[in-house]
Design goal:
Blueprint: E1 5-16, E2 19-30, E3 34-38, H1 45-53, E4 60-65, E5 68-69, H2 74-79, E6 81-84, H3 96-106, H4 111-124, H5 140-152, E7 158-162, H6 170-183, E8 188-193, H7 199-202, E9 205-210, E10 213-218, H8 230-239
Parallel strand pairs: 3-8, 3-9, 6-7, 7-8
Antiparallel strand pairs: 1-2, 1-4, 4-5, 9-10
Helix pairs in contact: 3-4, 4-5
Length: about 250
């Protein structure tokens, strides 16, 4: 594997009882790329992300973060990884500052390092106005930013974001999109969505998953290269069940 590959799925397969949720999924994401993980609800995106982060173990295959097998050495892999699940890990009675301190100490960050990183992520995620307010009193948009700050706290090289704009209003969505674009300048980002409009504004590349299979891997522009609107391409990819397309 090339040294600049930051996220790798190698024949990832996950079976729950008789249900095959992820089917022989393979891809590599190099350093500095923002990749949209697209597909309908139930396509297997969240399961694949949980496999990549080591949250669950694959039935078959391997996942690597920064070249580290997440099953063989999860702690080292997590040092390179920031993960934002769809429902981020927040304690509503804490303030953003208190939450970040809690997670930083859990990661064994020194107090000096933690102080610097808290200041950095509060600025990056535009949390200055709400840094000392209880999270339970914040809007969903601000809560999403707090969860993003937690994922960024240890300054990881890789970010995996599961539906980061889910349930947000248009202004909040715009803010999260801009944050992802900004992060993509220095980090490798995999962001899942089922919203077509999320793809072109943020992504250099699209991975399209359907029924647990990877059915498209290419640039966002390639989805409309044959003249079909992106909504029609979505319909084609989810109804014709083609073999993987790599333009």
């Amino acid at each position: 594997m090339a040294n600049n590959v930051k996220i790798e799925a190698e024949s990832l397969t996950k079976q729950f009882g008789s249900f095959l949720a992820v089917r022989d999924v393979s891809f590599e994401i190099p350093a500095g790329q923002v990749v949209a993980f697209l597909g309908p609800n139930g396509a297997g995106k969240t399961t694949t992300m949980r496999l990549l982060t080591g949250f669950i173990a694959p039935t078959r295959g391997r996942a690597r973060i920064a070249g580290i097998d997440v099953q063989e050495d999860r702690i080292s892999a997590e040092e390179n990884l920031g993960y934002l699940p769809e429902n981020g890990p927040l304690y509503l009675d804490m303030t953003p500052v208190a939450l970040l301190k809690f997670f930083g100490l859990a990661r064994s960050m020194s107090r000096a390092q933690l102080r610097d990183r808290i200041d950095a992520v509060i600025g990056l995620c535009a949390l200055e106005r709400v840094a000392t307010k209880p999270i339970g009193k914040l809007s969903k948009g601000y809560r999403q930013r707090v969860a993003m700050a937690q994922a960024l706290l240890h300054d990881p090289a890789v970010l995996i974001l599961d539906e980061p704009t889910s349930g947000l209003d248009p202004n909040q969505i715009r803010g999260v999109r801009q944050l992802i674009r900004d992060l993509g300048r220095t980090k490798t980002v995999l962001v899942s969505t089922h919203i077509l409009q999320e793809v072109e504004p943020v992504a250099d590349r699209v991975l399209f998953l359907h029924e647990g299979r990877l059915v498209f891997d290419g640039a966002p522009a390639a989805l409309i290269a044959d003249g079909l609107p992106i909504e029609d391409q979505f319909h084609r990819l989810t109804h014709n069940h083609p073999a993987i397309s790599r333009p």
